[in-house]
């Protein structure tokens, strides 16, 4: 699971820029563009508190145990 907040000391990080935001009731979906022309979609619970904006640079985090390699 990719997150916008660090929750573990083992979390790996990557930075990107928010290019799109979708509000869907209790969920917010962010599209984050990476420097290599790829993008990551992050879905978070809409808590009504922390909001990000388009063109904001963000750091995303993922725990190595959550990575599935094929």
Question: Your description of this structure?
Answer:
- It is a single chain.
- This protein has 70 residues and is an all-beta fold.
- It has one domain: OB fold (Dihydrolipoamide Acetyltransferase, E2P).
- The chain has no helices and four strands.
- A four-stranded antiparallel sheet has the order 3-2-1-4, with no helix packed on it.
- The chain is globular.
- The protein starts with 11 loop residues before the first strand and ends in an 8-residue tail after the last strand.
- The mean pLDDT is 91.
Helix vs. strand class: mainly beta
Strand content: over 45%
Please compute the radius of gyration using only Cα atoms: 12 Å
Unreliable residue runs: none
- Adjacency order of strands in the biggest sheet: 3-2-1-4
What's the architecture, going by CATH?
Beta Barrel
Q: Outline, from the CA principal axes?
A: globular
Using DSSP, what is the number of strands?
4
Q: What helical percentage do the residues reach?
A: under 10%
Q: Mind summarizing the main beta sheet?
A: 4 strands, antiparallel
CATH class: Mainly Beta
Order of helices and strands: EEEE
N- to C-terminal distance: 16 Å
Structure annotation, total helices: 0
Average per-residue pLDDT, rounded, comes to 91
What count of structural domains? Answer: 1
GO cellular component, one term: ATP-binding cassette (ABC) transporter complex
Pfam families: TOBE_2
Domain Transport-associated OB type: 2-68
InterPro entries: Transp-assoc_OB_typ2
């Amino acid at each position: 699971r990719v997150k916008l907040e660090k929750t573990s000391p083992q979390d790996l990080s990557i930075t990107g820029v928010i290019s799109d935001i979708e509000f869907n009731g209790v969920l917010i979906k962010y599209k984050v563009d990476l420097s290599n022309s790829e993008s990551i979609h992050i879905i978070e619970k809409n808590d009504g508190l922390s909001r990000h904006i388009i063109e904001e640079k963000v750091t995303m985090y993922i725990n190595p145990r959550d990575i599935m390699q094929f």
